[in-house]
Amino acid sequence: MLIELGQMPRNAVVLGLIDALLEYRTLLVSLTA
């Protein structure tokens, strides 16, 4: 996911965290499956 920095910093940070959490979750699921 590409994020435009400078436009809305807070939204960019939140979206980045959500993206990272989703990737981490899928990684955990693939490891435990």
Task: Give the gist of this structure.
With 33 residues, the chain is mostly helical. The protein has one helix at 9-32.
Give the tally of β-strands.
0
Helicity level: over 70%
Tally of individual helices: 1
Q: What gross morphology would you assign? A: rod-shaped
Which spans of ≥5 residues are poorly predicted at pLDDT below 50? none
Question: Could you give a short account of the major beta sheet?
Answer: none
Ends distance: 26 Å
Task: Output mean pLDDT.
Answer: 83
Strand-pairing-aware structural class: mainly alpha
- The radius of gyration is 12 Å
**What proportion strand?**
under 5%
Order of helices and strands: H
Furnish the topology, listing elements before pairings:
Elements: H1 9-32
Can you walk me through this structure?
- With 33 residues, this protein is mainly α.
- The chain is built from one helix and no strands.
- The longest helix has 24 residues, at 9-32.
- The protein is rod-shaped, with a radius of gyration of 12 Å.
- The mean pLDDT is 83.
